[in-house]
Every structure is written in C-alpha cells, then in structure tokens.
Amino acid sequence: MATFLAAFALFAVVSLAMSIGVLLQGKRLRGSCGGTGKACECSALKARKCRLREMREMTDAAEA
Predict the structure, then answer these.
(1) What's the sign of the alpha-carbon dihedral 46, 51, 57, 63?
(2) Residues 38, 42, 43, 48: is their CA dihedral positive or negative?
(3) 2 and 16 in contact (C-beta within 8 Å)?
(4) pLDDT digits (tens, 9 = 90+) for 10-61
(5) How many other C-beta atoms can be found within 10 angstroms of the C-beta atom of residue 49?
C-alpha cells in the first residue's frame, strides 16, 4: 500500500508541475492538426497554412 501511495504522490506532483509550466508559459493548448476548434485537414500544406493563419491572428490580437 505504501508503494501505491508513493507512486500516486509522484504522479500527482509531476502532473502539478507540468500544469504550472503550461500556465506560466501562457500558451494555448493545441491539437495535432492546426489547433482547437478550427477545421484543418491533416495534410502538411493545409496544416502549415492553418498555423500561419493562427500566428497572424495572435499577432493581430496582441497589437490591438
């Protein structure tokens, strides 16, 4: 039982550390195909176009 609790505590600490890292970086979580909530097909060209569009949107939002 002690091994289980130690393993659980270790996983909890690692998960908490990763969560804090994501929050401090301020980046949005993204899917594997161009981001969340956007209809991007998983071809290399379309995914690149989608990433570029998202970067432009973030730049425009930061300037506003």
Answers:
(1) negative
(2) positive
(3) no
(4) 999 999 999 998 888 877 766 666 555 555 556 778 778 888 888 888 887 7
(5) 14
**Which SS3 state, helix, strand or coil, does residue 51 take?**
helix
- Which residues does 35 contact at the CB level (< 8 Å), separation at least 6? 28, 50, 51, 54
What is the distance between the alpha carbons of residues 37 and 50, in angstroms, rounded to a whole number? 12
Q: Taking the model in full, what pTM does it have?
A: 0.43
Spatial distance between the Cα atoms of 56 and 48, rounded to a whole number of angstroms: 12
Query: Which sign does the torsion angle of CA 26, 31, 33, 37 carry?
Result: negative
